[in-house]
Predict the 3D structure of the following.
Amino acid sequence: MRFLISLRPLLTFFYPLMVFFVLRNFGVKYLSIIIMVFGVFSHFLGKKKHPYQQKPGVFIHFVTFVLFPLFSSFLNDHFLLLLYPAMINLSLLIYFSLTLRRGQTPIIEQFARAFEKDLDEDKKKHCRQFTVVWSVFFCLNAMASVLTAFVSLEVWLAYTGFVSYVLIGLLFSIEYFVRKLRFREYRDTFLERTISKFFPDRQSS
């Protein structure tokens, strides 16, 4: 059971490569069976560990792993199977956006509190702003994933299997440097000591 649960992030990461390989060598029906079987098992075994898959996310999971493979196999067309990355981004968009409602704690603030329990108003504002940024990113990334699926399998593979991950890493980096430059709070690491030389904390400046 734990082995299947641990395969979930691996499936997400390697999904574009898997789709490309199976389609080129075995065809739509084999790929549909693989996705549907894994999707059903992973849902029932791991749903409690992934809060973004609750409520509307459950429906998205069902559509992605059950309905799409069934229709793809019946129609013998792989297009719907290319929508998995977009559906993942849609799930994350829903989850991040829901935490922006009044009375809710933005998801970035929830992450931040795991390292720093007491956040001042400026840090809370920063967390809310970047929760919005990530929500916009997931929306745009989902749209790009769908658009590339219309172009060709190779273009879709290049974007969903490489470019989108580069963009995610870039956004993480941007948030990190904005946070360091904004609050000037540094830990004792090589990178942060280097940054502090150019942008010293407010007490020493």
Q: What stands out?
A: The mean pLDDT is 86.
